[in-house]
Write a structure and sequence with these properties.
The complex is a heterodimer.
Chain A (H helix, E strand, L loop, with lengths): L2 H12 L2 E6 L5 H8 L13 E2 L8 E5 L7 H10 L5 E5 L1 H5 L21 E3 L6 H18 L10 E2 L13 H13 L8
Parallel strand pairs in A: 1-2, 1-3, 3-4, 4-5, 5-6
Helix pairs in contact in A: 1-5
Chain B lengths: L1 H10 L4 H22 L9 H10 L8 H24 L13 H21 L3 H32 L4 H5 L5 H17 L24 H26 L6 H25 L5 H29 L1
Helix pairs in contact in B: 2-9, 2-10, 3-9, 4-5, 4-9, 5-6, 6-8, 6-11, 8-9, 8-11, 9-10
The chains are: A alpha/beta, B mainly alpha.
Chain lengths: 190, 304
């Protein structure tokens, strides 16, 4: 690996620009995502910048259980993000459709439509977990380089040691959410 | 001798070798100052540099035809114009070489915002077009004040030569002109309270909504170079006349930093104004100072 590639890897890890997309979320996760950029958690320390345009972003943060109306929008926005790109599914809804499971208005979970790299379960997840998920996605981006998204299994971020959380298991996600909500540890010290 | 001096000015100081790190440093100072004002820690020191490298490694959407060619060209023109403007700044005393005059400097300073307007319209994105229209309206408002202020300084000194202007003795009229220029800087650099054209989130990213990868990196760089050029213009006009070259360079850098810091603090302390409020601000409030400056400059010139 030559010097330029090393520099590129390092830059990708340290400059994750995110685009936030709501696919029918209850607004809980959206508030937590905004909170992770607030003075209390300050994700900008890791170089995170909330971008207005999907063209500028590296990481697509999707919340919500994916309603029928939002499927086309998700696919369009995913194709508008320029590569290399990663997708972070925030909350239990995009992972499992959560309490809305079997609803006829839904076409979830999210990984039916776009490849997801990191799941951040929780209802809603703590801002620390969201920041950790974005940081993990940035590491995946740096390792992946310019190749297309691989078929590697998505990662599940869980703060506080609940590591057995299955992405498709509703109960485990909710348990992890409760565990996450109970843990008051902060990953990024303000 | 003249050619080497001119090349050294364009390539080393205050040209590219100084301007690139300074651009990234000023972008960092802007973000850091805003973060500190909001009670945050803010980005690490090398952040704008990492952003730039990362953007160079991203892909761009396929573009075809004349519109695609133009979209690729605008950021490059903007970067070269801004870099040329920085290279023209008369920082070092008696350097000889190519002496561009004030008119060339103003044209080069104006070119990046022209490019942004054109880029927004050629991207055919609705948000880009809104951003470009706002940028055009803003440009018409602040440029009247900006140009009148600079012309008043030039008229009071009877010259358009940059070297002579930089060495001119400071008079109250001169300071009034510098103040009017400083009031125009937030609009020129698209920062709060005049961040209308690229209004983040409100109209996505304004004229540069459709840009990605290396092209976006060029826009970021041209924005940084605009910071260096615009604050450098104020710094060279406000700096005292020094004959030692390293002292002149040091004073230039410190003054530029002070202006950047001041502008960032103003940006953090204010919210975005609406377009009609902005236009009214420049046409009603600040135009008076500019007209006062230029009329007194012309009056003094008639008397002398």
């Amino acid at each position: 690996m030559n010097l330029w590639n090393k520099l590129m890897c390092y830059s990708r890890r340290h400059s994750p620009w995110i685009f936030h997309m709501n696919s029918g979320s209850c607004n809980g996760c959206d508030i937590e995502l905004v909170a992770s950029l607030s003075p209390r958690y300050d994700a900008e320390q890791l170089g995170v910048r909330l971008e207005g345009s999907p063209r500028h972003a590296d990481i697509l943060c999707i919340t919500g259980p994916v309603t029928h109306n939002s499927v086309e929008a998700i696919k369009t926005v995913y194709s508008q993000v320029c590569g290399p790109k990663a997708v972070v599914a925030i909350g239990s809804c995009p992972a499992t459709t959560n309490v809305f499971i079997d609803s006829r208005t839904l076409d979830g979970p999210l990984d039916k439509h776009v490849p997801v790299d990191v799941f951040v379960p929780g209802c809603p997840p703590r801002p620390d977990a969201i920041i950790q998920g974005v940081a993990r996605a940035a590491e995946i981006l740096a390792a992946r380089g310019n190749t297309a998204p691989a078929a590697a299994p998505p990662e599940v971020i869980s703060i506080g040691g609940a590591s057995n959380c299955e992405a498709n298991c509703h109960v485990a996600s909710v348990a992890s959410a409760q565990h996450t909500a109970a843990s008051a540890q902060s990953e990024v010290q303000p | 001798m003249n050619l080497t001096t001119a090349l050294a000015r364009f390539l080393i100081f205050p040209g590219l070798l100084f301007a690139l790190p300074a651009a990234w440093f000023f972008l960092w100072v802007e973000r850091k100052a805003v973060a500190r004002m909001q009670g945050r820690f803010g980005p690490p020191f090398m952040q704008p540099f990492f952003d730039f490298i990362k953007l160079l490694g991203k892909s761009t959407p396929p573009r075809s035809g004349i519109a695609g060619l133009l979209m690729r060209a605008w950021p490059l023109i903007a970067v070269s114009a801004a870099a040329g403007a920085v290279g023209l700044l008369p920082v070092l005393p008696a350097s000889g070489g190519f002496e561009g005059d004030l008119i060339l400097l103003l044209a080069l300073l104006e070119l990046p915002s022209m490019c942004i307007i054109a880029a927004g319209f050629s991207s055919r994105s609705i948000f880009g077009e809104i951003g470009s229209a706002r940028e055009a309206a803003l440009s018409v408002s602040y440029n009247v004040v900006f140009l009148l202020a600079i012309v008043s300084i030039a008229a009071s000194q009877h010259t358009f030569r940059l070297e002579a202007l930089a060495q001119a003795p400071a008079t109250p009229l001169y300071w009034l002109g510098i103040l009017a220029i400083a009031v125009c800087l937030p609009a020129k650099l698209h920062i709060n309270p005049f961040s209308l054209p690229n209004a983040e989130q409100e109209i996505y990213s304004g004229p540069i909504t459709e840009y990605a990868g290396p092209e976006l990196a060029m826009w970021e760089l041209s924005h940084g170079l605009e910071w260096v050029a615009a604050t450098g213009l104020v710094a060279t006009l406000a700096a005292p006349h020094l004959t030692t070259w390293w002292l002149a360079a040091l004073v230039f850098i410190l003054l530029s930093f002070a202006v950047v810091f001041l502008l960032s603090v103003v940006a953090a302390a204010t919210a975005r104004l609406q377009i009609d409020t902005t236009v009214r601000f420049y046409w009603q409030c600040t135009l008076i100072f500019a007209v006062l400056a230029i009329s007194s400059a012309l009056f003094m010139r008639l008397r002398s």
